[in-house]
Specification:
Length: about 325
């Protein structure tokens, strides 16, 4: 059967570039590490370009960038674990970077934030190479990654490495998905839970935040709360904060909805409520499928389209 079809050219091909080294750091034992990221970008007919040196697609110009930050309790996961779920942003016209940052076994806070800020500067420094718009960079993360995305949204000074210092680590938009914006609020719950014999951990050193801060059996609750306060975005709210959307499930069994509610309230008290959207996800747990349904993705895409100045809307893979 021979059929002639005319599918058109509304959608551009998305290419995936993996294992781009963006930073050189040391782990807790002093061993050197290379931190890597991957990049999804609509940048033409890459195989034809490699094979023939020519490209049959006209460039659409530089693309705004969205950086995805994984969660997993700061304990480290494959940077590409959620890449498939983030492809919708590439379909919408964004370049999408997935970054690996030091786990709590490889570095204690603020190492994780330092790495994320370094990734922003690396990508901004290499914007021309990757076809990225360096003036419009956003971040999105879930859980521990939501905590880091919210921290980046504050655009606070400090927490910078000595790499790619010719550029800024400021971002222009952020999405915090059920992040730990107020770690002491969370730790107070953990203090009670570890007293239960059936709880998964029996000391603060074993917990996610305990591992993040490198606490020991000698670390007091007051010291842990102080560490948490220094590592909480809620304590860095300021006028430089970029527009941010917060998503949290009303049935989250790990990070209480109250954490994001308190964060949103403090942002409003600071007079920055007009920069913030807060979405309570009905029946949403901790990263359950409700967060990755078409409705949720559309809200996220539209948020970034608005604040990163992309002049089109995601709609079944076509441009509007």
């Amino acid at each position: 059967m021979r059929v002639k079809i005319n599918p058109g050219k509304q959608r551009r091909s998305i290419n995936f570039i993996d294992n781009i080294v963006y930073s050189h750091v040391n782990d807790l034992q002093g061993n050197p590490m290379e931190l890597t990221l991957s990049l999804m970008v609509q940048n033409g007919n890459c195989e034809m370009r490699l094979a023939s040196g020519r490209d049959d697609e006209v460039s659409t110009g530089k693309q705004p960038l969205v950086i995805w930050i994984n969660g997993a309790g700061w304990r480290g996961v494959d940077k590409n674990l959620m890449a498939a779920e983030m492809e919708f942003l590439a379909e919408a016209g964004f370049a999408v970077a997935n970054i690996y940052y030091r786990s709590s076994k490889e570095g204690h806070f603020p190492a994780q934030l330092v790495d994320c800020k370094t990734a922003v500067r690396y990508l901004r420094s290499h914007a021309e190479e990757y076809g990225i718009d360096p003036e419009h960079i956003g971040v999105i993360g879930r859980s521990a990654g939501g905590h880091l995305a919210a921290f980046l949204a504050m655009n606070s000074s400090g927490f910078d490495s000595r790499e790619w210092t010719d550029t800024s680590s400021k971002v222009q938009a952020a999405v915090d998905m059920f992040g730990l914006a107020d770690i002491p609020m969370y730790s107070k719950i953990t203090f009670e839970l570890i007293k239960r014999p059936d709880y998964r951990w029996h000391s603060m050193a074993e917990t996610h935040e305990g591992a993040l801060f490198g606490v020991t059996g000698e670390t007091t609750e007051e010291e842990i709360l102080a560490m948490g306060a220094k590592a909480s975005p809620i304590n860095y709210i300021n006028e430089d904060m970029c527009p941010m959307a917060i998503f949290h499930g009303d049935q989250d069994p790990l990070v209480p909805l109250a954490v994001s509610e308190h964060f949103y309230e403090e942002i409003q008290k600071a007079g920055l409520g007009d920069r913030t959207e807060f979405y309570v996800v009905e029946n949403g747990g901790h990263g359950t499928r409700e967060f990755f349904q078409p409705m949720t993705k559309q809200i996220i895409a539209d948020f970034f389209i608005k604040h990163l100045k992309l002049g089109r809307r995601m709609d079944n893979g076509t441009d509007k």
